[in-house]
From TrEMBL:
<comment type="similarity">
    <text>Belongs to the cytochrome P450 family.</text>
</comment>
<dbReference type="GO" id="GO:0005506">
    <property type="term" value="F:iron ion binding"/>
</dbReference>
<keyword id="KW-0349">Heme</keyword>
<dbReference type="InterPro" id="IPR002401">
    <property type="entry name" value="Cyt_P450_E_grp-I"/>
</dbReference>
<keyword id="KW-0408">Iron</keyword>
<dbReference type="GO" id="GO:0004497">
    <property type="term" value="F:monooxygenase activity"/>
</dbReference>
<keyword id="KW-0732">Signal</keyword>
<dbReference type="Pfam" id="PF00067">
    <property type="entry name" value="p450"/>
</dbReference>
<keyword id="KW-0503">Monooxygenase</keyword>
<dbReference type="InterPro" id="IPR017972">
    <property type="entry name" value="Cyt_P450_CS"/>
</dbReference>
<protein>
    <recommendedName>
        <fullName>Cytochrome P450</fullName>
    </recommendedName>
</protein>
<dbReference type="GO" id="GO:0020037">
    <property type="term" value="F:heme binding"/>
</dbReference>
<keyword id="KW-0560">Oxidoreductase</keyword>
<feature type="signal peptide">
    <location>
        <begin position="1"/>
        <end position="24"/>
    </location>
</feature>
<dbReference type="InterPro" id="IPR001128">
    <property type="entry name" value="Cyt_P450"/>
</dbReference>
<keyword id="KW-0479">Metal-binding</keyword>
<dbReference type="GO" id="GO:0016705">
    <property type="term" value="F:oxidoreductase activity, acting on paired donors, with incorporation or reduction of molecular oxygen"/>
</dbReference>
Length: 455
């Protein structure tokens, strides 16, 4: 063989050979330590029991102590890798190969076409559509007056004139009234009440073992989700007719906004009816429960932290001085409530509404020397990522901020309160945190409390 040809072959083959030898020497990533447990059930029941007993953080720490910050288990019907710590959060939230993955129970209840489940171009299309209504400053400014009116009506009907109230159910009703008005244009009506009942049952099975039997919370939630979906589909068709007749506009509510969006190239509707319904369900669930929990626990905290409460009162009384009696808050007023929002963020740190976050591996991944196989879930718990992070950060975070600031403005100016229960630090997760007995409080009405007649 010609020597020049031989040298050429060696020159080509040597790098390939060295690469193969290097890979052969490098140990392959292995599955994390731990056990998948029983089929389908896995460790789900243990986690749910710990959440209800308010020992979920201990449950997580016990796993970390036993296996380290990376371990495998099975949750809600899927093999899962549990990741704990700031480095794990960064890995999960900013890794394009780990899109959102709800537990199988939540996925079945919320639908397949929500932006929580979709990836790539479909996710960007739907998230962009939702952002048109939930993140644009010009649209956000329109919310403030509507939310102000709902808050004052609610406090006048359900708080004013009462000596005691139970905070959690009242906050859930307030945030539901706000979100159903903004999403669907619904005021108080039998249809709104039916949707509220469906939503309450939907939440019962969101983190349940996905066993579809008549006596299970999962079956009840499936039925409630189907009922809510029918209601929203009917609202969607009705809104479409109003748009065609000129009786509604793109800024009327979320449904009207989504129906009005079209593809820039074809002029066709940007979203299908199924996509509108599924993403409206997601927005309804997310916009209702998390905000009500935040405000409930702010009230609980302020009852025992009088210095912080006094500072908040001063901030809001200063804002009120510049306004006429009965004048609604504005976007500029909210920008002055910096201390109140810091209190809200600290409350979220102490009692995060969402215990953990699930992502799905779309390819084999490696973290800290361990393999996360394609298709497995990845769950980083117990970190201050109140609205998530990365490209899937909560699209409704500004709405939650507006709800919270407006509500606290009137609460701290109109009322004083103290807790009825001595065990004020007790709460359970099912799956979201709920204080003991729903947080009953004794109310004292300030001189500035208005008399509001329900319409």
């Amino acid at each position: 063989m010609d020597s020049s040809l031989l040298l050429a072959l060696v020159a080509v083959a040597l790098p390939v050979l060295l690469h193969v030898l290097k890979r052969a020497k490098k140990p392959r990533a292995k599955l994390p330590p731990g056990s998948l447990g029983l089929p389908l059930i896995g460790q789900s029941l243990g986690l749910l029991r710990a959440m209800r007993a308010n020992t979920a953080e201990r449950w997580i720490q016990d796993r970390v102590d036993r296996y380290g910050p990376v371990s495998k288990l099975s949750l809600f019907g899927g093999p899962t890798v549990l990741l704990a710590g700031p480095a794990a959060n960064k890995f999960v939230f900013f890794n394009g190969a780990l899109p959102m993955q709800q537990p199988l129970s939540a996925q079945r209840i919320l639908g397949d076409k929500s932006m929580l489940e979709l990836m790539g171009a479909d996710h960007r299309r739907i998230r962009g559509a939702m952002a048109e209504f939930l993140l644009k400053p010009d649209t956000l400014r329109l919310y403030v007056g509507k939310i102000d009116g709902e808050v004052r009506r609610h406090l006048g009907e359900s708080w004013a004139g009462r000596r005691t109230v139970t905070v959690m159910p009242l906050m859930k009703r307030l945030t539901f009234d706000i979100i159903s008005l903004l999403l669907f244009g619904l005021g108080r009506s039998p249809l709104q009440d039916a949707l509220a009942d469906d939503l309450a049952r939907v939440m019962e099975g969101m983190w349940a073992v996905p066993v579809n039997l008549p006596f299970t919370a999962f079956r009840r939630s499936l039925k409630a989700g189907a009922s809510a979906r029918r209601i929203i589909a009917g609202i969607t068709r009705e809104t479409k007719g109003k748009l065609e007749r000129g009786e509604a506009s793109r800024s009327s509510d979320l449904i009207a906004c989504l129906l009005s969006l079209t593809d820039d190239d074809t002029g066709a509707p940007l979203l299908s009816e199924e996509e509108i319904v599924d993403n409206s369900i997601v927005a309804l669930v997310a916009g209702h429960d998390t905000s009500s929990i935040l405000m409930t626990f702010m009230i609980r905290h302020l009852a025992g932290d009088l210095d912080t409460l006094a500072a908040m009162v001063r901030e809001h009384e200063e804002i009120a001085k510049s306004k006429d009696d009965g004048e609604a808050l504005t976007w500029d007023d909210l920008a002055k409530m910096k201390f109140t929002w810091r209190v809200a963020l600290e409350t979220l740190r102490l009692v995060p509404p969402i215990f953990g976050n699930f992502r799905r591996a779309t390819q084999d991944l490696e973290f800290d020397g361990y393999l996360i196989p394609k298709g497995w879930q990845s769950a980083p718990p117990c970190s201050f990522v109140a609205f998530g992070a990365g490209p899937r950060i909560c699209v409704g975070m500004e709405l939650a901020k507006i709800e919270t600031l407006v509500t606290m403005h009137y609460l701290v100016r109109w009322f004083r309160w103290k807790l009825c229960c001595k065990a004020e630090d007790t709460f359970a997760r099912d799956p979201m945190p709920s204080p003991l007995h729903g947080l009953p409080i004794e109310l004292e009405h300030k001189a500035s409390t208005p008399v509001i007649v329900a319409s």
